[in-house]
């Protein structure tokens, strides 16, 4: 009997043991949102970490996240039961170069989970074979053993809350990903949260590692700023990101698109973490991406990453490099003009011609669909230049930085990445076609005997421009510090001009340094402080104003100089930037660490053309017009920064004074809003901080929040016009005028506007403060000077108008004039 009892107990023990290895393993355990029960119903699609796995492995799904003091991983292998010889490799420091190298060259695993002969999971150190350091781990199988869930305590891994990487080998037959040397799966340190901030936003990534290996570090900053300018044209507020921001997915989940000006290099110890974050962003949050050239191919020493150098480009964009060399003659032309990125282009329209340029070309991986947006023709052969894909977020890839920075295409790519084929609406810094700021360097200002000539000429011209074009600009002055040699400012003569001829007309004064050194790069930190900070203080004292900006004299400055000036100035006008000398539209922050706004003139200075290039004044004028056309072609509210010198007005044997008003007249006729550089600097800061939220239910509802948005507008990209805006009466066919703090605007689109009383035009630089109306009556307050145009409802026969200096009415068009730049309150009542 006793012997039978023992036998029964043994049988019972093995029965229990076999049961524990059945549908729920040996113990069901609740880890908060996840219960280890072999059932995946408590896992979300957002928790799936294998989206970039090859399609032939689509039957296998891998889930993972950190919960409390454990990492939980689930595997669903639809084709085969999960058995012994299944291994999970854990790269806990996300550095591929440390830890155990699988197959001798891949993974960098500090730990592994091994399903042993008893089919239970045990934890081992990297390549250690004999001694498990934990296990069997809490786990659960499905009845058919094709699903397993397991929990790994963080303390056994020696990590707290951090992401870890994962490679999976199922039964030594299925490897995920298929290439262990390529991207790894990332198990987030905690369960990913749904996106909570639904405002439209771009993250622009600055890579310090790439900048150090770029052919010129400051040129990389120009490309970075050019991309900020493209975001401004797209009308989508942006943040500036750095490499370390890409290590944690929590930093980027609220962006609609990530813009990489150039992301060639990254420290090798950050590669795995950054790549895991980007894959999660793309395939789990559908965040769009825009990039150019070779993507994450080299480390901090400019050495290619091991294995296939294009594996990361393949993982994220589904493309690889097929050709590239130079210099060659290249013609870039539009194809697939029905795609939103190429909207406005004709088929085969030439976008760019360049006689000597390096080119690269990329094509789709087998089975990966991409749309070719533009081709580059080189020596009779046509190569892909710009491609788009919708594989895990909408993505656009430019073959080179030149194609990205020499064309006005990135802003369209941004809009498509954010809006797709839906109607797009953007937040613009102006109500006009472009913003035009003039930099006038008064080099003669520090010569007391010569200054009167330039002052008198400039006084007359600025007055004419103000009266005719409502012009304002920025005048940068030197002070001089050598009275014995006539290098000083006669404030008795100059101050009345600065106060009455410049500031009183709405223009601005900035510092051009104390003594106009020809090469600021040779100055010490103390000398730079004197030239710019003390000159600023002197101007403030003499004129009773607050100077906030400066312009570099002489030769272009290095980044080391701008870093010093970042302490003293809110903005700086520096080195020219354009094709072959940087990139178009370099406006914004030099790096994410800078506080000041940098302005690169994007039209040639008069000095450069006439005294250095030795061009005729007629050619110089033509070049200005050509550059203006290039900057505004296929653009959307671009910034134009025009740069010239006071001596151009008086050195008539060298310069033609007519070239300056001719340019201003051309800009005026082509929809420019003239503004000071200080004004635009503030608009850029306000734009970056603003919030834009869009929903498309019962009309297009746009919520804009921010500060000092009274110069701003909402512009629609649509074939139709604005029919009406709920409870808002300041808009024209495609543009809505905002007031100071924005608000909620529900927009209805149609074939023609409703018959209501509304503002259809405001003067340059006018700041709309408030507005109310009911379709017939209208009341508004604005700050500024000039003419306001109002379309009256046809039902209004007579009106009582208060607040305007002059009134002119022609049928339903009402034009109100305001002669003084101040705050104006206007009331229009139907009688």
Plain-language structure description:
- With 831 residues, the protein is an alpha+beta fold.
- 23% of the residues lie in helices and 32% in strands.
- It is built from 16 helices and 45 strands.
- The strands form ten sheets. Strands 16-15-17-18-23-22-21-19-20 form a nine-stranded mixed sheet. Strands 5, 8, 9, 12, 13 and 14 form a six-stranded antiparallel sheet that branches. Strands 40, 41, 42, 43, 44 and 45 form a six-stranded antiparallel sheet that branches.
- Helix 9 runs parallel beside helix 10.
- It starts with a helix and ends with a strand.
- The relative contact order is 0.07.
List key phrases describing it.
32% strand, single chain, disordered N terminus, 9-stranded mixed sheet, alpha+beta
């Amino acid at each position: 009997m006793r012997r039978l009892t023992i036998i029964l107990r043994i049988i019972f023990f093995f029965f229990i043991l076999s049961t524990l290895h059945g549908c729920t393993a040996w113990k069901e355990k609740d880890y908060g949102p996840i219960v280890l029960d072999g059932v995946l119903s408590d896992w979300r699609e957002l928790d799936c970490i294998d989206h970039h796995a090859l399609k032939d492995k689509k039957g296998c799904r891998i889930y993972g996240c950190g919960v409390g003091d454990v990492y939980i991983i689930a595997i669903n292998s639809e084709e085969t039961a999960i058995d012994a010889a299944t291994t999970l490799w854990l790269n806990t420091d996300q550095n591929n170069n440390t830890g155990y190298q699988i197959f001798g060259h891949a993974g960098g695993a500090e730990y592994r989970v091994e399903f042993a002969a008893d089919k239970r999971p045990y934890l081992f150190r990297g390549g250690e074979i004999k001694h498990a350091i934990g296990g069997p781990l809490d786990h659960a199988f499905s009845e058919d053993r094709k699903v397993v869930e397991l929990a790994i305590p963080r303390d056994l891994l020696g990590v707290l809350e951090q992401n870890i990487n994962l490679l999976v080998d199922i039964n030594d037959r299925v490897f995920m990903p298929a290439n262990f040397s390529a991207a790894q799966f990332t198990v987030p340190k905690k369960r990913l949260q749904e996106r909570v901030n639904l405002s439209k936003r771009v993250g622009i990534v600055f890579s310090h590692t790439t900048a150090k290996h770029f052919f010129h570090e400051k040129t990389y900053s120009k490309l970075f700023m050019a991309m900020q300018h493209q975001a401004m044209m797209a009308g989508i507020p942006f943040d500036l990101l750095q490499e370390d921001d890409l290590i944690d997915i929590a930093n980027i989940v609220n962006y609609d698109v990530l813009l990489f000006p150039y992301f060639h290099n990254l420290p090798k110890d950050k590669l795995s973490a950054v790549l895991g974050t980007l894959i999660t962003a793309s395939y789990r949050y559908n965040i769009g991406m825009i990039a150019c050239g070779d993507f994450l191919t080299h480390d901090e020493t400019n050495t290619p990453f091991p294995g296939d150098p294009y594996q990361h480009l393949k993982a994220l964009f589904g493309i690889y490099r097929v050709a590239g060399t130079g210099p060659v003659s290249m013609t870039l032309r539009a194809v697939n003009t029905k795609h939103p990125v190429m909207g406005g282009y004709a088929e085969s329209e030439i976008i760019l011609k360049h006689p000597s340029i390096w080119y690269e070309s990329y094509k789709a991986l087998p089975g990966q669909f991409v749309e070719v947006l533009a081709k580059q023709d080189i020596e009779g052969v046509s190569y892909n230049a710009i491609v788009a894909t919708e594989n895990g977020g909408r993505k656009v890839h430019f073959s080179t930085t030149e194609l990205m920075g020499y064309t006005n295409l990135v802003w369209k790519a941004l809009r498509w990445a954010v809006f797709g084929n839906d109607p797009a609406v953007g937040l613009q810094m102006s109500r006009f076609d472009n913003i035009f700021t003039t930099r006038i360097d008064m080099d003669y200002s520090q010569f007391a005997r010569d200054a009167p000539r330039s002052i008198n000429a400039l006084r007359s011209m600025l007055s004419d421009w103000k009266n005719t074009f409502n012009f304002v600009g920025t005048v940068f002055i030197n002070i001089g510090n050598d009275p014995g040699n006539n290098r000083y400012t006669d404030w008795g003569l100059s101050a009345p001009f600065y106060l009455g001829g410049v500031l009183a007309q709405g223009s601005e004064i900035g510092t051009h340094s104390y003594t106009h050194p020809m090469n600021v790069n040779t100055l010490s930190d103390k000398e730079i402080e004197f030239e710019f900070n003390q000159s600023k203080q002197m101007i403030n004292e003499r004129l009773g104003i607050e100077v906030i900006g400066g312009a570099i004299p002489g030769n272009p400055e290095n980044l080391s100089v701008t870093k010093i000036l970042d302490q003293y100035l809110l903005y700086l006008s520096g080195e020219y930037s354009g094709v072959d000398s940087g990139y178009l539209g370099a406006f914004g922050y030099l790096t994410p660490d800078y506080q000041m706004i940098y302005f690169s003139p994007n039209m040639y200075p008069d000095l450069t053309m006439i005294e250095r290039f030795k061009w005729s004044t007629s050619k110089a004028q033509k070049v200005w017009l050509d550059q203006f056309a290039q900057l505004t072609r296929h653009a959307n509210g671009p910034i134009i920064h025009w740069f010239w010198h006071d001596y151009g007005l008086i050195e008539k044997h060298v310069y033609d004074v007519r070239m300056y008003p001719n340019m201003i007249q051309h800009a005026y006729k082509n929809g420019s809003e003239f503004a000071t550089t200080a004004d635009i600097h503030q608009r850029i800061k306000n734009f970056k901080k603003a919030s834009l939220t869009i929903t498309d239910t019962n009309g297009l509802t746009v919520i804009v929040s921010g500060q000092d948005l009274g110069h701003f507008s909402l512009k629609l990209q649509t074939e139709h016009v604005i029919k009406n805006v709920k409870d808002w009466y300041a808009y024209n066919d495609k543009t809505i005028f905002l007031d100071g703090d924005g608000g909620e605007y529900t927009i209805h689109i149609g074939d023609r506007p409703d018959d209501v009383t509304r503002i259809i035009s405001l003067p340059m630089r006018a700041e709309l403060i408030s507005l109310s109306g009911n379709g017939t009556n209208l009341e508004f307050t604005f700050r500024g000077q000039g003419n306001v145009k109002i379309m009256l409802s046809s039902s209004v026969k007579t009106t009582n108008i208060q607040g305007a200096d002059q009134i002119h009415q022609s049928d339903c068009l009402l034009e109100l004039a305001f002669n003084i730049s101040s705050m104006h309150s206007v009331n229009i009542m139907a009688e």
